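Q&A log
Question type: sequence-to-structure
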Amino acid sequence: MMGEVKISNSENDLNMMCGLEIHVQLNTNSKLFCDCKTNYQEVPPNTNICPVCLNQPGAKPYPANVQGLKNALMIALMLNCKIDQNIIYFLRKHYNYPDLPSGYQRTSLPIGYKGKLNGIRIREIHIEEDPGQFKPDKGIVDFNRSGIPLVEIVTEPDIFSPEQARTFLRELIRVLKYSESARGEGTMRADVNISLDGGKRVEIKNINSIRGAYKALKFEMVRQKNLIKRGIEIQQETRAFVESQMITVSMRLKEDADDYRFIPDPDLPPIAITSKKIVNVKENMPEAPHSKVKRFIEQYNIDEESANVLTSELDLADAYEEIVKKIDSKFTASWMRDELKRVLYYNKIDYKSSNINPNKIIQLLELLINKEITTKAGQRIVEYMVESPNTPIEIAEKLNLIGIVSNDEVINATKIAIEENPEAVDDYYQGKKASMNFLVGQVMKQTKGKADPQKTVEILKNYLNK
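Response status: OK
Response body:
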């Protein structure tokens, strides 16, 4: 298969340089230059349209959507960008494609520049209009999407592996979710610019997901390395990513900026981003996730891994901060990071979509701290909490999980488990680790799950090692 070409180790000394151009729809109710709605996925084709969307003769664009500009400004600030306070105007970027009835796309001069995220420099951030949706297999165009505001985030070529690109995009999407200013990965389209050892740059289009960006880079690295190995020069070109086959295919020779014939749009007034606007957005924007990670580590004395997990969702991070007002920060982080996230991941839902709230987690942790339930019981309760409207106490009572057995009861259960399972005991003496898990399970069975697992292991080891 074309997507499974392998290269020898001797070719791996070729260094990759990659920059990204990421486009994500901004979260607005109306389009960038007209009042048409942006819920294009919920209505029949060519419903949310007007003469401006379709560039009908005599139709003039409205001044740029104020909420869209504010959202783009917030994203730029959350990405640590400097803000251009000079006069900003929209340009016409000319190219001919069926989904672009005007023959040009309106895109702004940079709003933000010289930002940084995860060590990757952000060159600039623009706002522009989305084209329509061309369906070449059917020969039709749906203009519902035409004119929806986009934020375009352009990085410097600071990415040196597909893995680094994937990590960066995940963190970027997390920033966009926190900002609530953009619609997230579902509307993302990325162009990937890649070159090997300073060679000619290849642009890859048609990438619609983080996974797609990773796969496109992996394939393109192999393709270019094999060409270099055979003495074939890499062409500067634009290629398309075919997601169904995980390969890239040539589209055309790469355009330069001059090919787009950029000119200022005479139908749109210039924009000035004042200091007052910047201060207003800063005062109302949420804390960026990367800033929150750093603060969680310092303020709550937790490790970086826990901080990253707890800030993976804004609602989860807010819940943690509410809970630690009453419960130890490290104990809370451990349970939310390991058990709560485990159950959410298994059920394929996020924290916001679950039935869990801070008060329920506090009640569960108090049951554990007060030794009213075992760790094992706590794990079972979390599994029920995701979908159940009941409180942890109600769940524990219903499942008969309240109470922890005494050491004497654990010792008696341990003796029974050892006597009734000689094969497992022999396996333990032969160094088979699974046998200990089995014997702990037998003790749990005898005590109806009310023995403390850690204490059970200690008692078992004491008896087996006599």
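Response note: The two ends are 60 Å apart (CA to CA).
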